[in-house]
Structure formats: C-alpha cells, structure tokens
Write a structure and sequence with these properties.
Layout: H1 11-22, H2 38-47, H3 55-59, H4 66-99, E1 104-106, H5 108-114, E2 129-133, H6 138-147, E3 150-152, E4 177-179, E5 185-189, H7 203-209, E6 211-215, E7 218-222, H8 225-239, H9 242-245, H10 250-263, H11 269-277, H12 282-296, H13 307-322, H14 325-345, H15 359-376
Parallel strand pairs: 2-5
Antiparallel strand pairs: 1-2, 3-4, 4-5, 6-7
Helix pairs in contact: 1-2, 8-10, 8-11, 10-12, 11-12, 12-13, 14-15
Length: 377
C-alpha cells in the first residue's frame, strides 16, 4: 500500500472522512478516494474501534484499494463471529440470573445490539459484556456466573499468581469475570460510573425507567433511550476523562448519533439537560451536542456550543495527542521497570506471562495503568 503525501492528506482530514463514512446518513455519491492516506485511515479506525463498521461503506466503492477493502471485510467477519459468541453468552447469562431472581439490565454495546440499533450487528465492536444488577444482588449474581462457568481474579487469590500494576481501581463494577470455554468477559455493575459521576445517572433511575425488549425468546431489560443517551455521553466524556482532554472516541460518537437518529423524537430532552446541569456538567453535554452535529450531521434540540468551536478544539487536541510519543515511551519504560523489579523479587511471577488464561486480565490492567499514567503526566 503506497503512503500518500502526508502534507496533502493529513490526519485531521482523514479523520473527517472517517466520520463522513460512519454518519447515520453516509454519502450517496461515491467520494473521490484519490490521495487518501490509507495507512492513517486504517490506524485511526483501529484507535477509535470502528474498523468492522467500515467494511460495507468501503466495499461499495470499487475505487478503494482492494487490499484495504479485504482488510476491513476480514475484520468485520471476525467481529461477526465474536459478537455472536458474546450474545449467546449474554442470553445464557441473563436466563441464569433470572432463574435465581436477580434483576439485570444489559448496558452499552450489548444493549445496542439487543435493541437493534445497528442494521448490521457486526458493525459494533465490544470489549466485554456489561450487566447492571441491583447492589444488594451483585454477590448473588457473581456466584451464579461462577456456576455458569465464569472465573475471575480477586484479592483472595494468592499474591504470587498475579502482578497488578498500581492503578486506580473501579468502584462501580466487580472485576471482570471470564467464561472458561468461550473467553467472553463480563463486568457486573452496581453503578454506571465512577462514584464522582454517579449522580448523573444513578442505577436506581435506570431500573425505574428500563425498557423491556423481546430478544432471543426472552424478555430483556435495557435502559430507556433517554438513559442510553445520557450514559453514552457521560461514560465517554466524564468517566473516561475525554472531555477534560478535549477528545472523543468515534465508536461512542457514532453510537450517540444512531441513538439520536432512531430515538430522537422520544428522548426526554429536558431530563437530559437537567441531569448534566445538576452536577455542574452542562458544558460537557453542550460540547458533545456540537460535536455530534459537526461530525455526524445530527443536531440535538438543546443548547449547545458552536459546532465550529467544538470542531476546532477537537482538531487541536487530536493534533497535540499525536505528538505525545515521548510521554508514551516514558510511561512504557516505567511500566517495564515495575515488572522487572517484581520478577527480580519473585521470579515465579514471570511464569504467568506464558499462561494465556491470564492475558485478558493482564492486558486490561496494563491498559488502565498506561491510561492513568498518561493523565498524571
């Protein structure tokens, strides 16, 4: 694949093209694909977790390089199999929880797929499965998952089994439990965000407003469209600190646009504004609304900042983010020293690197460590 002139087609223009392809109303006329920086395009799709969603848009245009189209189609097909496995596990899991009287609500990507938000379920990439249960039932739910073949790492296990980089642990869900046969990971939530943002959307409100959906022969509960929209914005912009960094994740912005496209007329907009306003986070909602209009072409019927201003800020922050390689290298060296010191003190720990069963949990801890260290720097 030939790399094009970077000055002529830079990262920001590539990102804008990515947004146009993923908007709920994509271009009907095939775009001019000449001069596209395909290496940057593939990289940004991966960073923003939207690779599978680009398979069909690109496959419609023969002018896209064949190897590019084949790459996205292959990723889409693999994600299709992965999602089917995950949804099969969700079906069994929710049925198992219902058998013992545990109320459960599917969240985030799983809720979107159950609700039929995506025309093609394989478009949505999911890291793991998120299930909300009432706080008083979370221990009972975790025990039921263990009966269904899930296992987890917790503080009761011997310290020599695991090296955990120092980090800020989650306060709103249990450690991920992973199914031994399928590898599907699930997080049981008793809240939707870290404690500091819990008042934006308390779990009790989600249960009170939950919508019943008939899916796979069961009655499944998911958050109402209003709560799904609030959760999407607050989780991406507040819980993951992207508002303070002036950034977005395109997977989440696209899902926000799809919720708006499908359910905009039924969303309780005064409630949406009130939820952010009462915790002093109205600017978060206003900027996200402006970004949704600027990048996805959909306007929310609420007060918002200037789309041009929101786009300009995002462009500046994304450009700045691309130049942070020195910080990333320093943080990676710091993590490396942590592991080397741990292995020197207790050499048996190094054996865990050879055990694939530990890799998902290790990758998760390392990812969180790197993310928080970058914020601290």
């Amino acid at each position: 694949m030939r790399r094009t002139d970077y000055a002529r087609v830079g990262p920001w223009e590539t990102f804008k093209r990515l947004c146009r392809l993923l908007a709920p109303s994509p271009p009907r006329v095939p775009p001019d694909l000449s001069g596209w920086d395909w290496e940057t395009f593939v990289h940004q799709a991966s960073v923003h977790l939207v690779t599978p969603a680009l398979a069909m848009p690109l496959d419609r245009w023969a002018t896209a390089p064949a190897e590019v189209r084949q790459y996205f189609i292959a990723f889409h097909d693999l994600n299709d199999k992965r999602n089917k496995t995950a949804l099969g596990a969700v079906s069994e899991m929710l049925a198992g929880l219902r058998e013992i009287g545990v109320e459960a609500i599917a969240l985030k990507g799983v809720a979107s797929l159950i609700a039929g938000l995506y025309d093609d379920p394989a478009d949505r990439f999911m890291g793991d499965v998120d299930i909300l249960v009432r706080p008083a039932q979370i221990s009972k739910a975790a025990a039921r998952l263990r009966e269904l073949g899930y296992t987890w790492t917790n503080s009761e296990e011997p310290a020599h089994r695991w090296v955990v980089p120092p980090q800020r642990g989650p306060t709103h869900h249990l450690e991920m439990q992973r199914h031994l046969r399928t590898g599907v990971g699930v997080e049981l939530h008793h809240g939707l965000f870290a404690a500091e943002f819990d008042e934006v959307l308390p779990a009790a409100d989600v249960f009170d407003g939950a919508a019943k959906v008939e899916w796979n022969g069961q009655n499944i509960f998911i958050p109402s469209p209003t709560h799904r929209l609030v959760h999407n914005i607050a989780h991406d912009q507040l819980h993951h600190s992207r508002y303070s960094r002036g950034l977005i994740q395109l997977r989440q912005l696209r899902e926000l646009a799809l919720i708006l496209s499908r359910h905009g007329g039924t969303i309780a907009w005064p409630e949406v504004e009130e939820r952010f306003d009462r915790v002093g986070q109205a600017p978060v909602l206003r900027r996200q609304a402006a970004q949704c209009f600027a990048l996805m072409g959909l306007r929310m019927p609420i007060e918002q900042t200037s789309p041009e201003e929101a786009e300009s800020l995002l462009r500046a922050r994304m450009t700045e983010n691309l130049s942070r390689h020195a910080v990333r290298r320093a943080v990676t060296r710091k993590l490396g020293r942590f592991y080397l010191d741990s292995f020197a003190a207790q050499p048996a720990l190094a054996l865990n690197l050879l055990n694939p069963a530990w890799w998902p949990q290790r990758i998760r801890h390392v990812r969180d460590y790197l993310r928080y260290q970058r914020l601290d720097n």
